[in-house]
Write a structure and sequence with these properties.
Blueprint: H1 10-26, H2 31-38, H3 42-58, H4 78-95, H5 99-124
Helix pairs in contact: 1-3, 1-4, 4-5
Length: 131
C-alpha cells in the first residue's frame, strides 16, 4: 500500500495531471470531446495544465491566460462536468491527501460549476457571449 502525501511539488502536479488525463483519454464520454479538440497536441495541453495547476496550488505563477474561452463553444453539458469531476476526485484520492489535495478538489468543483453555468448560458443564448 502506498502512503499518500499532499501535493507539494511540480512532480506531484505532473503526476496528478498525467494520471487524470490518462483516465479522461480512456473515458467513453469525455475522450471524444478532448481528442476532438486536442487531437495530436496532447503534450502541449499537458504542459499548459501543469502550469495552470502549479499556479493555482503551489503559487508558482507559471500560467498566463484565461481558461474559459477555449471551452466556451464545446458541445458539453452538466453530465460531462460530473464525469470530469468524478475522474478528477478519483485521481486525487488515489495519490494524495492533505490541504492542497482538498484545495485541488474544491477548485475543480468551483471551476466545473462556473464553466457549466457559462456554457449552458451560451448554448441557450447563442446571440450573446460571456467570456
Amino acid at each position: 500500500m502506498t502512503t499518500l502525501h499532499d501535493i507539494s511539488s511540480i512532480d506531484d502536479i505532473k503526476k496528478m495531471v498525467d494520471s487524470f488525463y490518462g483516465k479522461v483519454r480512456q473515458d467513453d464520454l469525455l475522450a471524444p470531446i478532448f481528442d476532438g479538440v486536442i487531437g495530436d497536441k496532447w503534450p502541449i495541453h499537458l504542459e499548459k495544465m501543469y502550469r495552470f495547476w502549479q499556479t493555482i496550488l503551489l503559487s508558482d505563477h507559471t500560467y498566463y491566460g484565461s481558461p474559459f474561452p477555449p471551452h466556451a463553444k464545446l458541445p458539453i453539458n452538466k453530465n460531462h462536468f460530473e464525469r470530469w469531476l468524478q475522474l478528477f476526485y478519483a485521481t486525487i484520492d488515489t495519490y494524495f491527501e492533505g490541504e492542497k489535495a482538498d484545495e485541488a478538489k474544491w477548485r475543480a468543483q468551483k471551476m466545473a460549476e462556473m464553466f457549466s453555468f457559462k456554457i449552458a448560458y451560451i448554448q441557450n443564448n447563442p446571440s450573446k457571449t460571456i467570456l
